[in-house]
Amino acid sequence: MKFLAVCSSGLGSSFMTHLNIEKALKELGVTGIEVDHTDLGSADAGSADAVFVGRDIAEAAQHLGDVVVLDSLIDMNEIRTKVADAATRHGIEVPS
Amino acid sequence: VNGVLSVLLDVFRQPSIIVALIALIGLAIQRKSASDVFKGTVRTLVGFLVLAAGAGVVSGSLSPFGQMFEHAFNVQGVVPNNEAIVGQVLVEYGSAAALIFFFGMIVNVALAATTQFKYIYLSGHVAFYMAAMIAVIFGVAGFATWQVILWGSIAQGIVMTMSPAIVQPFMRKVTGTDDVALGHTGGAGIALSGVVATLTRSKRKPSRSTEDIAFPSGLGFLRDTTVIVALSMGVIYVVVALFAGPDYIQSELSNGQTYLLFAIMQAATFSAGVFIILAGVRVVLAEIVPAFKGISERLVKDAKPALDVPITFTFAPNAVLIGFLSSFAGGIVGMVVMALSGTAIIIPGIVAHFMTGAASGVIGNGAGGRRGAVLGAFTNGLAITFLPLLLLPVLGNVGLSNSTFSDADFGVVGLVLGHVSSAGGQTAVVIALVVSLVLVYGSSVLMRNRAKRRSALADQAPAEQETASVR
Fold this sequence. Notes:
- The complex is a heterodimer of chains A (96) and B (471).
- Chain A is built from two helices and four strands.
- With 96 residues, chain A is an alpha/beta fold.
- Chain A starts with a strand and ends in a 7-residue tail after the last helix.
- The longest helix of chain B is centred in the C-terminal third of the chain and has 53 residues, at 408-460.
- The chains are: A alpha/beta (96), B mainly alpha (471).
């Protein structure tokens, strides 16, 4: 199982989203999910089970499969909820 | 003993090894397992070499561009692109840059821990580029290596702490919180946009927000760096090739290949080089930034992460596009002015105009609506066109290459450090650093007192605090 954060250059905001997803997974008590980050050009539909992007690049990321659109990259509550949803969607149990 | 010493010196002259050691320290501090530490250290070493390889590809495509430009217009043509210039710089200044980057993080944490400026600069890529520029400027000034690293790290730490601070008043209006800051080398231009937007705001007839406009979609491809760099460079190379003419290109540069095809292939190669450099930077930072983040959170109470510009983009997607276009317009106007006045010509760098222009648009919109977004971003566009021009002389030989640092902070910091060091050498640099530190701590004390007064007032009248925090 792999979650991928994507932004246009794959350096700054996707990296922070990557670290926040890891933080959320830890807080949720979910293990066994690999997290990484990259740029739009390097990602493709098979790159990950779920791809997290900011809403500003949602349109450009449509082709990446299960795309999770974040309304804000700095709202930890939103990230936690959407990470939990994505994990459940891919058959991983989230301890509540 | 001398033999061992010279081998050691040889080892430490390899920037890839220095970066790998920094990663090793970062991983060890995070108490990673031995296999993770080993893996991460080797990955970083290889990542740096990937970066260096990308630099070769970029300069291979930039040098015929420079020749075409000179032949066509008789002046130097410069494309501001951070990845392109940093890649080339790191070959010569890599070790100093890596150490300034590393110790600069420590200075950043120390300043954040002891002042009111709680900003931790987590945009490692641009911090690394800033360290590279400082290494060049002090190197060109003729400082000894230890001086380059010592004074460079202090300067770097001050920049990392204060660049987010100057944007924060405007950032608060956009995000509605004081917990997150903007950490990007475009900071000075983005703050300038906020100032311009505030000054041009009309009290009687405030400009509406950009987000009330129904905007056409379909410009999503603008967000793919590889595509946009290849396309924009393709246009620039082809235009320059048309002016340089087929005779010159086919006889001197392309080895007989049709000149327009040659131009397009070189532009695509430029984008390929940037792609490689970005991949290398990503690998190098992957092990270092999490350690920095973890340590700063532990050592700095109420630390505010300063993050890359796209965090602002989600707050006002329309302002992103308006900001980019306005900033780019500023770049074009600046280029025309340079062409008419016969200086070297700064060609608008599309990535810089996109990243810092878009953020200027969002910040400008927050401070002054649509008018603020347009005028603020336009001013940023002018700034990131003229600042690189002024910066060229202080970069020594690096300034003669056909690429340069693009964002506003590079211009501001580079001009100050460059002129101070050429005017008064090391003494002047030390004085400048001391003065900056006094200013940082002085304004921190002022801020602390004001915060105290405000909370005292708020205790008396809770209603007042409400308006204060809204403002």
